[in-house]
Amino acid sequence: MSDGRAEVRRHAERGSNDRLDGYAILDESLVCHLGFAVDDQPFVIPVTFARAGDELIIHGSPASRLLRHFDGTNEAVAEVTILDGLVLARSAFNHSMNYRSVVCFGKPVVVDDLDERARLLDLVTDKLVPGRRPHLRQMTEKEVRGTKVIRMPIDAISVKVRSGGPGDREEADVDVWAGVVPMSLVAGTPVPADGWEDAEPPRHVKDLA
């Protein structure tokens, strides 16, 4: 469901409120920026996250006074952007970027139940490194208590995508190279921890690259 918050006004042709498109972008992203206001002071913090159905699962430190702000009544906004390319035109004015972005609106609430908190933390772990969780030791109760988890219902969603080349075809005769430089996030070769230099990385780690 869309509302005024999720309406794309500039370059509206690039925007939509399609949840499936938005969810695909969220699932590919590793970090989101969470924005909210406390006593009229705005904050934006980067957080790791996962999506579970129509909710975002976000975790952080229990000491964070910012995350203590969420009780299901305070509004928040979460944003992700995937950069796909630099669009180089024949003038600085027409330079752009190819990207996929999502903005979500909702009222987060803190997860108090420890079993549910542990389950949601497992989702975040497997979002970052698919297949990792079965290889890890079980989280201790102290670790679960030492991590705050919030779930944010996606009440409204705004998707915006830009693709293609520079929009200055009318200047094609100008003697300046124009085109797109593709950009992507690429995993490098795994670097073992100290003392594990001779250990072979497991398949789920190799698969990242």
Report on the architecture of this protein.
With 209 residues, the chain is of the alpha+beta class. It has a single domain, classed as Pnp Oxidase, Chain A (Roll). 16% of the residues lie in helices and 34% in strands. It is built from 4 helices and 10 strands; from the N terminus they run βαββββββααβββα. Strands 1, 2, 3, 4, 5, 6, 7, 8, 9 and 10 form a 10-stranded antiparallel sheet that branches. The model has no long low-confidence stretch (mean pLDDT 90).
Layout of strands and helices, then pairs:
Layout: E1 15-16, H1 19-28, E2 31-38, E3 41-52, E4 55-60, E5 76-88, E6 96-106, E7 109-110, H2 114-128, H3 141-145, E8 148-153, E9 156-162, E10 179-182, H4 203-206
Antiparallel strand pairs: 1-9, 2-3, 2-5, 3-4, 4-8, 5-6, 5-10, 6-9, 7-8
* Corresponding CATH superfamily: Electron Transport, Fmn-binding Protein, Chain A
SSE arrangement, N to C: EHEEEEEEHHEEEH
Secondary-structure class: alpha+beta
Radius of gyration over all CA atoms, rounded: 21 Å
| Highest CATH level, the class | Mainly Beta
> Distance between the terminal alpha carbons, to the nearest Å?
37 Å
